[in-house]
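To illustrate the input format used throughout this study, we show a single complete record. The first block contains the structure-token representation of the backbone; no residue identities are included at this stage. The design step must infer an amino acid for every position from geometry alone.
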């Protein structure tokens, strides 16, 4: 009986430990924030510096805001994370990607945009934050 309880406990630990680890890195307050300032506060961003080393690939005009493909590449040394924000969405923070062990800071994803707005990217490198943005004209609402 003790062996069965031990194995059940071990199995439960194997299943629930990854879920708890994900919950520890999930920043619920940042993802629920509506305003850009609230997102920055919840991500502990106190000062951002403009950087042309952040490349944003997105259409100038999106036919349908429900599917807007965005590519982001950071040429900033020691990039730790890339956050994608859209001010005029129901929640401003779209994604927050973390990089480690020399991973290339490059992402391609599809996002939803409620209306014409800037796609703002915030890159963390060390204790510094860098930003760049690109305006996308949305012809059909994607967050309805």
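Output of the design step:
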């Amino acid at each position: 009986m003790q062996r069965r309880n031990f194995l059940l406990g071990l199995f439960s630990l194997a299943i629930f430990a990854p879920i708890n680890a994900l919950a520890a890195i999930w920043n619920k307050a940042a993802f629920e924030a509506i305003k850009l300032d609230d997102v920055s506060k919840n991500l502990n961003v106190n000062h951002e510096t403009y950087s042309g080393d952040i490349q944003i690939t997105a259409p100038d005009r999106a036919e349908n805001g429900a599917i807007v493909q965005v590519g982001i590449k950071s040429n900033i040394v020691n990039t730790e994370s890339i956050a994608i924000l859209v001010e005029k969405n129901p929640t401003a923070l779209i994604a927050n990607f973390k990089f480690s062990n020399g991973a290339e800071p490059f992402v391609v994803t599809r996002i939803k945009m409620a209306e014409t707005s800037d796609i703002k990217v915030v890159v963390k490198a060390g204790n510094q934050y860098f930003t760049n943005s690109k305006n996308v004209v949305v012809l059909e609402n994607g967050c309805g």
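Structural context for interpreting the output: The chain is about 25% helix and 40% strand. The mean pLDDT is 85.
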